Amino acid sequence: MSDFHQNGVITDFHNLTRRPVEALEKELIQFARRRPMGLILPSLFSELEGPALSKIVDELAQVPYLNEIVIGLDRADRDQFLYAREFFSRLPQHTRILWNDGPRLRELDAELESHGLGALEPGKGRNVWYCGGYVLASHRSTVVGLHDCDILTYDRGLLARLMYPVAHPRFHYSFCKGYYPRIAEGKLNGRVSRLLVTPLLRALKVVCGPLPYLDYLDSFRYPLSGEFAMRSEVLEGIRIPADWGLEIGVLSELQRNYAHRQLCQVDIADAYDHKHQPISEQDPSGGLNRMSLDISKALYRKLATQGVSFSSEDFRTLKATYYRLALDLIEAYDHDATMNGLSLDRHCEEQAVELFASNLLEAGNLFLDNPRERPFIPSWNRVQAAVPDLLSRMHEAVELDNQGKV
User: Which SUPFAM superfamilies match (predicted)?
Assistant: First the structure.
């Protein structure tokens, strides 16, 4: 079943009845003959020692239609990389690990920096960007999925539903965004989406006026989900932030580069739980504190490219508008949780909103104070124009790391 969520900007495949994963995989095997499929897994080394990733690998080992799996490994020394090679060796698919902290890839990263083309800081966005470059260099996949490595409730049906709309040979979709209910252990989760993004988009509509871009973002049920699938050519032309603004940045680039009829979203899971980030009220460099700053800046940057002009007074107005809307939503979430027998701590919800409101103003100040900031990693099309052989050398470096001595 499908419907058009809210304002009908993008197609929404809402699964009112779920097909068995075996039936989906049987079709995906057929689709893979025309559209070979790969998967990107951006990972910190710490996630190899966490409770989720080992089960994810066990599930992926049973997926019959994937042609390759590319793992981006951050914050790993030599021994940890060798451990990762062994950890992922049980995957039967063509599997490669990008050791982002290894000497070979760091050398290529320094070369990109010398051309002014690299990511200025490490982060999930930088990890995904390099993995995307490797996928382009390997030529093994024309459809690429991506999901996080901390999903505690993972099963391979999630991936099948995510890949299906882009892999189907009769469908015209270039990109698919996954969504799911953020409920676990009797609690309503998804604080950043519920308490920051939703009221912020509504506040921006009030302060900046109605804009197609804001309607477009508001049409996604869960714009911050880390699960999406795309045609491989999408990876060539998009610019993405290196930080926590990745998901908003990707959606923004797609709105710029593709018609809405080429984009869709799909319900991929009945239950979803992952590692929960702390609020980190006293540490602006971590947790939801840092995440809210990066997401806010990503939205401001995109609106500026569309001709929206911001001043200090605008950001103060935005903060006040957001705060009132967010508090109204907390009441609605409280009622929703009560009706569904879920718990919700209103005090903690309001504390989060107070932090996010403060960060809206801080992100605005950072935006105004640094007009020359390079917010996006350049597209791979631009990299290939500047350094034509870089992708082939990256492919060679990854092969040597995975098959040779390190």
Answer: Nucleotide-diphospho-sugar transferases (SSF53448)
Which amino acid makes up residue 216? Y
> Any bridge partners for residue 299, and if so which?
none
For residue 103, what pLDDT is reported? 97
Give the tens place of pLDDT for each residue, 344-375: 999 999 999 999 999 999 999 999 998 667 77
Q: Is 334 exposed, middle or buried (0-12, 13-18, 19+ CB in 10 A)?
A: middle
∠ CA(3), CA(59), CA(187), 5° rounding?
A: 60
* Tens digit of each residue's pLDDT (9 = 90 or more) over 286-304: 678 888 998 999 999 899 9
pTM for the predicted model, two decimal places: 0.93
Using one digit for the tens of pLDDT, what is the confidence trace for 229-287? 999 999 999 998 877 789 999 999 999 999 999 999 999 998 888 776 767 666 666 67
Low-confidence ranges of the chain (pLDDT < 50): 1-7
**Phi and psi dihedrals of 310, rounded to 5?**
-115, 145
300-307 long-range Cβ contacts below 8 angstroms, 24+ apart: 300/363, 300/364, 300/367, 301/367, 301/375, 302/213, 302/248, 302/249, 302/252, 303/204, 303/208, 303/211, 303/213, 304/367, 306/211, 306/213
Write the CA distances from 129 to 65, 122, 149, 382, integer angstroms: 24, 11, 16, 13
